Amino acid sequence: MKTKVLGKKMLIGGNWEDREDIIDVLDPQDQTVISTVPRATAEDMLFAIEEAKEGTIIAANMPVHERIRILNTAADYVNSHKEKYATMIAREGSKTINEATSEVSRCIQTLRISAEEARRINGETIPFDQMPGHENRIGYYYRFPIGVIGAITPFNDPLNLVAHKIGPAIASGNAIVVKPSSLTPISAILLAEAFVAAGLPEKVLSIITGSGSEIGEVLVTHPAVRMVSFTGGLPTGEKIAHQAGLKKINMELGSNSPAIVLRDACLDEAASACVSGAFSAAGQNCIGVQRIYIEESVFETFQRSFVDKTKQYKVGDKRIPSTDMGPLISVKEAKRVEEWVMEAVKKGATILTGGTRDGAFYSPTVLVNVPPNCQIAQEEIFGPVVLLYQIKNLNEGIERANNVEYGLQAGIFTNNVEHAFEAARRLEVGGLMINDSSDYRIDGMPFGGVKGSGIGREGIKFAIQEMTEPKVIQFNLRKNII
After folding, report:
1. CATH number, domain at 140?
2. Which residues form the Aldehyde dehydrogenase domain (predicted)?
3. Active site residues
4. pLDDT of 403 strictly over 50
5. Per-residue confidence at 4, pLDDT binned at 50, 70, 90?
């Protein structure tokens, strides 16, 4: 007899809604059904957008102190239910319980930073008398909310990436409709529960669960949606960009992130940082380390250390605190990673460790001698695989690091400040981490990339800039009459 699973409802304009048609939410570790969510229709999305249109008026008129209160109260709610949130992140996604707990802490921080930034949405006075003949004019500009924001979020950070959309939207006085990943929708629903408990007015927030093919295009193309904030893959991002029309687009589209290790670096620390940066969240991380370029004089030493540390990485039950890495999000994704690795091997690559699959689990894998015409060398693997390359010098490392269609973040390990500044100047990325791997981020920094890695920036202050527009106010004062 099949065990009945208690389903979750989606939030539409302040009301919790269920539907007969549902989506099963699976634990990728053992494929068990942990819950269900409604499979929304296009009509559901249209209704949510209509509700959000009314919500924009409510949100824009909400005093800043009230936005601050709601955001901080929602953060308090998440903090008081931390174990519940972490358990759900670990169950519906790929993260270990330790990684999930860290994500909950980051979500709390994201909401608190959003509350702080709400009080800093400032304008400036404008010296209109900079032009001759305009001496009697004064004025300023201020930033106003743009209206309805449509957000589409991925599976790999199912709570904090949703908070990165909702927090800035509420801080800046917008209404927002979120379509979370169908693979990990429950974390987003739990975050909505926090905002309802915090007293967020109805119609300001909707969380719509369903298939992207059924409801995603409605959200992206609707003329009332004035901004689309998307985190996901490049092909989907390109499709959204073509569909969206004349509206603001903010996209973080992943990467094939490089690290450069020079001979003057602390090699053991560099290896540890890159192992963590490559295999955390089973490599399903947009800023995870995928390519490492090592100066040839220290290549063997670094390779030996990196492989040894990779072999020590504990793969297994993600619910156990001692586990370093759990499964990928699905068997399908694990098979894809396996296929990409096998393609590289057929073309001449060598597996130093790993390269095995068990269901949705794929072992941490290190490759050398990977030819440039492999998919894994050019595209984002989004799995636990790293490519090691020898380079003659920094110049070669920079040129090869830049030789992909992505540019989100990079890392460089060196004790030479001139080398660090040279890399900072020439690497085509949105962020360079010096003596850290590319897998470093705090939630208050601008986050985004160049080339195929996206458009615009996340990070609360910078997302608020994207979610608002400047309005100029000018006074033509009458001249004094004596």
Report:
1. 3.40.605.10
2. 20-473
3. 252, 286
4. yes
5. low
Cα–Cα distance measured from residue 44 to residue 218, given in angstroms and rounded to the nearest whole number: 10
Please state the pTM of the whole predicted model.
Answer: 0.95
CA distance 269 to 437: 10
Does residue 442 sit within a domain? no
* Count of domains observed in the chain: 2
* 265-290 CB burial, b ≥16 within 10 A, e <16: bebeebbebbbbbbbbbbbbbbbbbb
| C-alpha span between 100 and 318 (Å, rounded) | 10
Interval 280-304: pLDDT, tens: 999 999 999 999 999 999 999 999 9
Domain that holds residue 265: 257-434
User: Distance (Å, rounded) from C-alpha 467 to C-alpha 449?
Assistant: 18
296: tokens are 């040839």
Joined together, the tokens standing for residue 159 give: 């709570």
| Within a domain: 443 | no
- % of residues, the chain, pLDDT over 70: 98
As given in the structure block, the two tokens for residue 143 are 């930033």
Write the pLDDT tens digit of every residue in 440-468. 999 999 999 999 999 999 999 999 999 99
* Residue 272, domain CATH: 3.40.309.10
Asked whether 438 and 386 are in contact (CB, 8 A), the reply is no
Looking at the structure, tell me whether residues 144 and 208 fall in a common domain.
Answer: yes
